[in-house]
Amino acid sequence: MRVVITGAAGFAGYSLVEALVASGDEVYAILRPHSNHNARFDNHESNLHLIEIDCSDFDKIAEHISEECDIFYHLAWFGGRDDFAVQNRNIDYNLKAVESAHKLKCHRFVGIGSQAEYGAVSGVIHEGLMPKPINAYGSAKVAAMYLSKRRCEQLGIEWVWGRIFSLYGDYEPSGRMLPDLLTKLKNNEIIQLSSCEQNWDYLHVRDAAEAIVSIGQAGKSGEIYNIANGDYRSLKSFVNEAIEMINPDAEVIFGERANPFISLQPDVIKIKNHTGWQPKISFNEGVKRFIDSM
């Protein structure tokens, strides 16, 4: 197939590109001009085509691709959690991506959202829950979801939406909890955390890429899918597992309860039943990969 991917150099986007290129698909990777992350593609396969275009011109992507395409994966997203101006622009970029999917005669548009759409949920999180975002980022994702779905209906494009939960692994940005924890454990630094009593669900980014491919190819049109491991447990248990693996003598200080208190208990029955996808990389193996890459 011929596929288009926005946000192709990002954390999840890069692994998605790798998965689709490896499967033999013709991949058009949409990159942000002059981004340092674009260097990840310096040596690439012949079935990968790089297109640098500003997100404000996402409606002009078709001008850079001479052939019709099959699936459009939209992952590009920018800005801080409560950066209202940028989050509002993301909604526009999302709709421009839909227009390009139509111009390229894609039969399917796959939008990637976030667990932030659900907000602070107590209990199991399934796709039928009403979104209750607590920040601008989650709110913009919800708006993009509804608007892209309606526009795809008007244009006759199949629409699928994936909500990513907590990813880790290759090219994870610094400043996030898990890579910082693993780095400090490796360097034998003192670690200060919250109480870590909330439930969490870690999914390796390569498994997430395969999940996105699965909903693109086998997900049902009009459906929303949680992209998560489904093996949720207390965040402290993940921390303790990493400590035991890397540095059992580490000094780790657990502090007060996080605020806002977000506890993740995602249900992944739908994606598994509809597509047959299953996560393959255990947390233990994922941590080993990170340490080996240091």
Over all CA atoms, what is the radius of gyration? Answer: 19 Å
| Alpha-beta content class | alpha/beta
Q: How many individual helices?
A: 8
Q: Approximately what portion of the residues adopt beta-strand conformation?
A: 15-25%
Molecular structure report:
- Strand 1, helix 1 (11-22) and strand 2 form a beta-alpha-beta unit.
- By secondary structure, the protein is an alpha/beta fold.
- It is globular.
- The model has no long low-confidence stretch (mean pLDDT 96).
- 40% of the residues are buried.
- Strands 3-2-1-4-5-6-11 form a 7-stranded parallel beta sheet, sandwiched between helices.
- It contains 8 helices and 13 strands.
Could you provide a short overview of the structure?
The protein has 294 residues and is an alpha/beta fold. The protein has helices at residues 11-22, 84-103, 136-155, 177-186, 205-218, 235-246, 269-275, 283-293, and strands at 2-6, 26-31, 48-52, 71-74, 108-114, 158-164, 166-168, 191-193, 199-200, 202-204, 224-227, 233-234, 252-254. The protein has a seven-stranded parallel beta sheet, sandwiched between helices.
Key structural traits:
single chain; 294 residues; two-stranded parallel sheet; 8 helices; 13 strands; 36% helix
